Amino acid sequence: MLNSDKVWEDIELLKKPDEPLLFELKQDILELRAKSFFKVLIKNKEFSTRGLYLTSIIIKYNPADYTSWYYRNECLKALDVDLNDELNFTRKITMESIKAFQPWNHRRNICTLANSGFNEIEYVKLEISTSPKNQCAWGHLTWLVRYFGVSDLFKELEFVEFLVSGDVYNNSAWNYKNFIFKYFKTDFDIDFMVKELGRDFQRLLRRTDNEGLCSYIMDMVPFLESSYTKCIMTNCECLFFFHEIILGEGPLSTCLVKIIKLQPPSLQLLRLLKKLKPDEEVFAHLYNSLGPPSNGYFGPFEVRLL
Fold this sequence. Notes:
This protein is mainly α. It folds into two domains: about 1-80, no CATH class; about 150-290. The chain is built from 17 helices and no strands. The protein has helices at about 5-10, 30-45, 50-60, 65-80, 85-95, 100-115, 120-130, 135-150, 155-165, 170-185, 190-205, 210-225, 245, 250-260, 265-275, 280-290, 300-305. Helix 9 (about 155-165) runs antiparallel to helix 10 (about 170-185). It comes from Theileria annulata.
């Protein structure tokens, strides 16, 4: 189609300067020809199927070409285009260039135009499973959940559990769990959320250098304390081995602080302690004096030096 003179006979190509530009990049002949026609269509404000065809060529050469994606989105508004086909095309581009945010944004535009989530939530979860720290994919998933909702919130928690069971240091997964609990807070029982906090806190005790998990707990404790004033032991069987020390006192932050003080000091536990009890002078001094160690853990010898 690109080489068919009949298709492009009405287009007068813009003249190119005789002298090469100072930093002009070499381009494939196909890409150069497509861009030449594309510039004319933009100038003429023509949104057509042949314009869609041109952008598909340009985007394959450069998936981050913002102008092509913008033009393509305008074509979707002006033409009767099968949005399922458009979504499949865009998915292929994201698969080939997962770090380019433009195709992810276009997928969002398609869903908005169709007022449908298609099967994007399930599909993007597969993409995250193959690339668990893809921020564009996580952002798209969060947007889909906000915009279209989910039928089963516990499936979202199961998805997080699947990811952190393979990599407990996946910060994006912990952020997503935080989002699910807070955005749908009225759909969860407070006792259930406290149980989850207890399980995740126990994970932190086993991996005290886990920054993402620590940040999640730092954020969740004040959120839960606004509705839950009892001791964490009331709901968390996983922490019952601390029961005699805590003696059933609340609130959550008080219980957790007592447990933290029993642990070997680590940077993340000290961060959490400083968040929960900023008036703890001894631990605050320890935190400020040591600074972040290379391995995220303060060994006994390092602590004795103080």
